[in-house]
Amino acid sequence: MGAQNGQWLLDHHIAAAGRQPCRGGWLGAGRYHATVTTTDVPDSVRLALPREAADIAALQGSVWAVEFADYPALLAELSTDEVAVAWERAITRPPVAQCRVLVAVSGDAVVGFATTMPSDDPDATAGSDGLIAEFLISPDRRAQGHGSRLLHACVDTLRADGFGLATCWVRSTDDDMRAFLTESGWAPDGSHREIGLADGSVRIKQIRLHTDISAD
To answer: How do residues 71-84 score in pLDDT, each as one tens digit?
Structure first.
């Protein structure tokens, strides 16, 4: 469940660095006082808060540094501060109402995040096809239920926003993410694309998976 380098991310984060993307197809309970009773806050998923933009950017940057080590030109375009600004904007001033940022939290820590939005794929059916544009769980918090909770929350959010089909672009080399989705009932739909920087220095191949989320 690694970084999903979707077009949404390239549009908003790389553009923040001043370059145009190329479309290829968007508490832990501490003891404060001896008389205070502490209670563990259960792991959960919710809408991101503006103050969590920096946490999201830091998590994304740390994962990207490993998973996109073969793309130094991409990493060179991103600064944590600029990415945090982009995330704060996405949380507080999304381009459309159905663009949402979700976070998986454990105690007071953000351990994962995802974005849901209307699909902007050329073959998408407007008002019916939704997209999980970003999906990332911290490597040291995987296999603990966070990914499943986050995925379920994404599907519930897309369904509540009126979509009947959920789609997600996955890097062709990300076997873990593909297996995670297929084990959750998703399947490839035969579509593929390349995304990257306009100067051609970065080209990333992706395949699209989908699942029916229409209400029974």
So the answer is: 787 788 778 888 99
Q: In whole angstroms, what is the distance from residue 145 CA to residue 141 CA?
A: 9
Pairing of strands 187-197, 44-47: unpaired
Residue 57, pLDDT > 80, answer yes
Residue 87: DSSP 8-state: H
Are 203 and 10 in contact, with CB atoms under 8 Å apart?
no
Residues in the chain: 216
Query: Which helix (H) or strand (E) element contains residue 80?
Result: helix 80-92
Higher pLDDT, 157 or 18: 157
pLDDT class for 139, splitting at 50, 70, 90? confident
Nearest-5° Cα angle at 133, 55 to 139: 45
* Order of strands, sheet of 100-106, starting from the edge strand that comes earlier in the sequence: 21-22, 187-197, 203-212, 165-171, 129-137, 109-118, 100-106, 44-47
The model's pTM is: 0.79
| Half-sphere exposure in the Cβ direction for 92 (13 Å, CA) | 11
Task: Give residue 185's identity as a one-letter amino acid code.
Answer: G
Check: CB of residue 87 under 8 Å from CB of residue 99: no
